[in-house]
Design brief:
single chain, 79 residues, mainly alpha, 3 helices, elongated, plasmid
């Protein structure tokens, strides 16, 4: 990513990368996706967006592992 004087190309690329991870991802509720969209597009700090992008992969891994353990077992499951 190249930084121009205004920093806009970097912000645009970071916003695009974050949006690509959030939207359509079943690990995030529609409300979380909506709030993320707002926060992504309101943030003007490339460092903050970069930190958010880095921490997002850890959050996704955590949610995936939590989802594996929260799925009810079909054995003994009463409807």
């Amino acid at each position: 990513m190249e930084t121009h004087v205004t920093g806009q190309p970097v912000l645009g690329e970071l916003r695009h990368a974050l949006s690509a991870v959030f939207f359509g991802n079943p690990l995030f509720s529609p409300q979380e996706q909506l709030l993320a969209n707002h926060d992504i597009h309101e943030c003007e700090d490339a460092r903050q967006l970069t930190r958010w992008l880095r921490s997002l992969s850890a959050a996704i891994a955590h949610r995936r592992s939590a989802d594996l353990f929260s799925t009810p077992s079909l054995a003994g499951y009463v409807v």
